Amino acid sequence: MDNEALTRAQAEYAAVERRYVDALRDKGLRFQSREEGLVEQARCAQLRRRLADEGTTVRNAGASLSCGYLSPACVACTGVGGSETFSTTFRCHRDCYFCFNHNVADYERFFHEGCPWEEGLERAAAERRGGRDLACIGLTGGEPLLDLENAIRFLKRAHQLFPNAHLRMYTSGDLLTEEAAQRLRDAGLDEIRFSVKDDDAPAMQQKVLDAMRLAKRYIPSVMAEMPVIPGAEVHMKDLLRRFDEVGLDGINLLEFCFPFCNWPEFDRRGFSLKNPPFDVMYDYGYSGGLAVAGSEELILTLMLWARDEGLRLGLHYCSLDNKHRSEMRQKNERAKGLHPCLSFDEQDFFLKAAKVFGPDVEPARAALQKVGCADVMEDADEGSLAFPLGQLPALTSVRRADGLPIEPQVCWFVYEVGGDDAYLTDVALCPVRCSTT
């Protein structure tokens, strides 16, 4: 339709994404073509529908899918109570090419000196005084078992500060002993997650399976967590069967990501990155990087297969988008009630409003006034009028002066706070018919 203001706004959003992808391509990264990405996206949407039809639980606007057991920590990650994860050390006896710890600020210092977890726990406790306690606390690394004494100290202090929190720990499992398992349990550990690597040698994977059996004798909940690497379908099916035989409570199937470092190892294996890189384009703070093409599709396929196989362990797909949900909740919950135009989406945790542009503004304004809606935000430079999503029905049959129907959009916002400044950033625009609201 003839709406220059809308066309200009849509082009600006598209340009942000295009510049992002082009800048990374210029650095040597390989993305899918846009066409390949949209085709894969459509296949994944079909798989998601099949899983939902078969009773899979859909959370966070589809970013999280689960069937069977789901760890309380996974619920809390994007929940009201919240979850926070700490490290006692960045040292690790493994050298995973996809590790994203190298992206963390002060990595080298923390690697050599240890991580300031005491300060982190005290800060978290101070922030929560008078409010809701943290629902879950995680201990990761590096490898926490390289410094067992510090891991025990961490768990005991976390339990003192947050006596009702669910405590979990991530480990490769290589260093777990019976004594360590007993001491971790006695220090309050509720859940242990074994970070399994797809490319481990068979003997190493057997060692981890044995450690899982050992952990089951002491730790209340025993989980696996691993990125699912494209091309590993046969091996993943074998691992899932073996995890089920061990009696694991569940597994977190993570979307495989490139951590903004070590690209030659990804390139050597022939991987490409998803395009579009995010469902909603934004400069996310999560250091896990960019999703690798093919990982999500394989995970969804494995979940359908596991249901058909009758595996008992819980399955949870944690997408890269799901990792971003917690950040969005923390940012945008602060803006509840900021302006009557804005609504907080309880599914994907973005702030949202309806918008019209250009020649649609005045007929929309008249229709809104007719139903008594004065809650609007006007942007003269953009040529737009924003209003509450709940008022969209008032515009159902509204037409422009030239007789054409108006084209309402849904706009996604993020509430930014920096120093003394706080402001809204609009990050996405979508026709009403394709919105998740």
SSE map:
Blueprint: H1 4-26, H2 34-53, E1 57-59, E2 64-67, H3 72-77, E3 83-87, H4 107-113, H5 117-128, E4 136-140, H6 148-161, E5 166-171, H7 178-186, E6 191-195, H8 202-216, E7 221-228, H9 233-246, E8 250-255, E9 257-258, H10 263-268, E10 290-291, H11 295-309, E11 314-318, H12 320-332, E12 343-344, E13 351-357, H13 361-370, E14 377-379, E15 384-387, E16 409-418, E17 421-431
Parallel strand pairs: 3-4, 4-5, 5-6, 6-7, 7-8, 8-11
Antiparallel strand pairs: 1-2, 2-11, 9-10, 12-13, 13-15, 13-16, 14-15, 16-17
Description:
It is a single chain. The mean pLDDT is about 95. It is built from 13 helices and 17 strands. The chain is about 40% helix and about 20% strand. The chain is globular, with a radius of gyration of 24 Å. It has helices spanning about 5-25, 35-55, 70-75, 105-115, 115-130, 150-160, 180-185, 200-215, 235-245, 265-270, 295-310, 320-330, 360-370; strands at about 55-60, 65, 85, 135-140, 165-170, 190-195, 220-230, 250-255, 255-260, 290, 315-320, 345, 350-355, 375-380, 385, 410-420, 420-430. It has 2 domains: about 5-15 and about 335-435, no CATH class; about 30-330, Alpha-Beta Barrel (TIM Barrel). Strand 6, helix 8 (about 200-215) and strand 7 form a beta-alpha-beta unit. The chain starts with a helix and ends in a 6-residue tail after the last strand. The strands form 3 sheets. It has a 9-stranded mixed beta sheet. The protein has about 425 residues and is an alpha/beta fold.
Shape-level CATH architecture of the largest domain: Alpha-Beta Barrel
How is the biggest beta sheet arranged? 9 strands, mixed
* The CATH fourth-level homologous superfamily of the largest domain: Aldolase class I
* CATH-derived topology of the largest domain: TIM Barrel
Spatial order of the strands in the main sheet?
1-2-11-8-7-6-5-4-3
Give me the Rg, rounded.
24 Å
- Name the CATH class of the largest domain: Alpha Beta
